[in-house]
Amino acid sequence: MGVAGGVIMSFIALGSPMLYLTIGLIVCGVALTLYLNMGLRSLSVIVVIIVLAVGFFRTEYAEYCIHQTKERLTPGQHELLAGVVDGEPAIIGAHQRFVLRTHDDVRIRVTTDRYPAVSFGDHILLTGSIQLPDVFETDTGRTFNYPTFLHARGVTHVSLFPEITVLGTHERSLRRVLFASKQWFLDRIGRALPEPHASLVGGVTVGAQDALGEELLDDFRGTGLIHIVVLSGFNIAIVVLALRWLLAWAPRYVAFGAASVGIILFALLVGGGATVIRASIMGLLGLMSIMLPGRHGDIVRGLMFAGLVMIVWNPYVLLFDPSFQLSFLATLGLIYLAPFFIDRLAWVPMRWGLREIVAATIATQVFVLPLLVYMNGVVSSTSVLSNVLVLPVIPFIMLFGSIAGVVGSIGLPIAYVASILVSYVLGVVDLLARVPTVTLPAFPVWIVIVVYSVYAFQILRVEKEKARNAKRSAPPQTITRIS
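Below the sequence we write its predicted structure tokens.
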């Protein structure tokens, strides 16, 4: 929390480098004075001050690196700018979007025509305009800080519809093999299933939702189901539940081990990028909270440590990466609220893990809803209902869809089963998408802070009450006197 506080202080602070140096000297002076005058009793205060300073200066260093990167490439018209495609391109209708890494290590988000198609590791030449990204206003009146959103991904420039020339591929790496395996898998699904069924299976299994189309994606957003096709911690939480359901027959620790291996294999299949790794860590911690309830304290510490490492590695993710924020909150919901709802959903059957699915759905929805509403202003009135209706069939879509993707057209009976299940999901989405969503006007961030402060207060109150009850119910210790 201290490092996070330092990061927030740094982003809020306004001033010159001399101001930051002055603040640093003051912090060091206060810490030294406390140590000399109060000894070890002030150790906790000193630690808090130090970690605040670490967060502050780590963020300033990240800002400095971004500034230096911007200066390496002047915005404007460029001829034959050489670079390498860094990461997996996204297909958006008739367009493609990818990140180009130049030889000066400047990363540019490029949006261009779908053809000529590019892939990870391709060396290309770019001719066109390159600009710095701008802040813009969304359809719901929200201000979207596009520059910092891209900075969280190491991107400093954008280019819209330049001319590109593919020179060839010289990249030989594990990531290229993984991306190629993923594309092979999606191609096989496309041969076995029609559209949009193939795209939905691709989105559920490996997070490839690009071919679903904007209209269908809007329906998924409006029904609160977008998380099943978007690669994030929210999506991997669903993968966790699916694996838990499929392994409900196995002993708890065996099921946990097999599900953990499944998450790791899933992360490798979808490319093993930074977002995937972060979401997988959150997913593993969420899995532990469900399947190993006795390790609650270790899971919370693990989540905080994972969040700390991610923030220190990239301070921008704390405030400007929705994927990190939603992953973190969804995992907290699984840890703290899912057990609460499991105890209160006695009317939901335990068979096939259905009660866990309903409880986890409600818990994650409650925890991410304030932030989601602040981000996009849209509240789905059918979110819980749609999740309860759809999530039970997701494990079977993953199972039959994956088999159909591996065996291709020779597994037509299996593909037929997957097609029926996908048709059911699309039917639910089409029906519930007709229910109007509620759009709220933009509101200040302090309201979100107050809501999550109330969450934190209630969690602390409940945890303290649990600790007191456990202490009261513990058997009294007897002291045997030895004479």
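The chain has a mean pLDDT of 75.
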